[in-house]
Design brief:
Helix content is about 60%, strand content about 0%. The chain has four helices and no strands.
């Protein structure tokens, strides 16, 4: 099976993450600290340039105090 990367979906995910983070008034630096991820990685996820892992999504959801499903709630 050939891997298919859905760039549009990844960008929507990143945009939604950024909006949730801003609503919570958390900087990228603070989110990086809370998750243990690199600041540059948070930026790449928000810009949709990387396809992050389920484990990282879970860490981000915990850090933002939201359900992981909330990170996927976009149209």
């Amino acid at each position: 099976m050939k891997y298919k990367r859905d760039d549009a979906f990844i960008k929507k995910f990143g945009k939604n993450l950024k909006e949730l983070r801003r609503r919570k008034k958390i900087s990228q630096e603070e989110l990086a600290y809370r998750t243990g991820l690199e600041l540059s990685q948070i930026g790449r996820i928000e810009r949709g340039t990387i396809n992050t892992s389920i484990s990282n999504i879970y860490l981000i959801a915990l850090a933002l105090d939201v359900a992981p499903a909330d990170l996927f709630s976009f149209s």
